[in-house]
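Entry 14. Structure prediction run on the chain below.
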Amino acid sequence: MTAPLRIWAVSDGRAGIEAQALGLAEAVARLKPAEIVCKRIAWPRWMHRAPTQLMPAWRGMLASGGGELSPPWPDLWIGNGRASVPLSIAARRWTSGATYVVQLQDPLRPCCLFDLVAPPNHDGLGGPNVFGVTGVPHRVTPERLTSELDAFRARLDRCSRPHVVVLIGGRSKAFDLSPERAERLARQIGDAVRESGGTLLLTFSRRTPPQAEASMRRALGGLPSLIWDGEGPNPYFAFLGTADVILVTEDSANMPTEAAATGRPVYLLDMDGRQARKQRFRAELAELGIARRFEGRLESWTYPPLRETERLAAEVLRRMAERAGAGT
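Output returned:
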């Protein structure tokens, strides 16, 4: 029997960044038996803002408990986030090209330094070893949504439909959520939920400013709702599994892509700030019939659930097989 693939998902350990690398690794493993190991980079704090060209490829820069960057090397290396870039580049040298190196997002380095670069289409990257996707890889599958929903089904089945799921992000380089913006959004959302006769299911992000969260909670008081308080199991995936419609803030690429995997209507919520890349992403989702700008009303529409992670996984295996065949 052929040995399972060895896959390393390499990132700085931030939840959203690691989820993308793990999502692709798990999608590959659904197509071909594989063993997946997470490797978390731990650069010194003073190095976090250094250009990736100046970040050294130290094999000892792993978080505690993360093992080592040493043989036996993986068959497939999936790097994500700027902290992984110098190590992904070095991995081809360390392994004499035996490891197939995939880098997610735009590495801001020449793409020829990797075997494959898989950025979101809205990064505008191109080239023979570039395979763009809509949004970002993720860990949402129909099976996971069903499994996570089962744990919350007793509570959610008592909630009137439609289930209006709201995913609130927060502060980033390009976006913010002021208390005033948060209150306006909450009043719009509250009016729409009341008109629908359904239930609000809401989660906040770790990046949501406390004042903005407090403003939204006050404005949404008295509404039929289930708002996660941060205690106990996170219902995020259960909410996606039960959603009839999903509203998500525009600051993230992860959350809209995960929402799009459900096939349910997706509305994008305006925030303070603007970014050209995210504007292109919004336009792409709109063109595919997935998402619309939220303007206070809830409607219903359908589209094929977005399956870009699976498409990328199949392409990675195809290219790995093609290279292996060329080497025989």
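The domain at 142-293 is CATH 3.40.50.2000 (Rossmann fold).
Filed with the rest of this week's runs.
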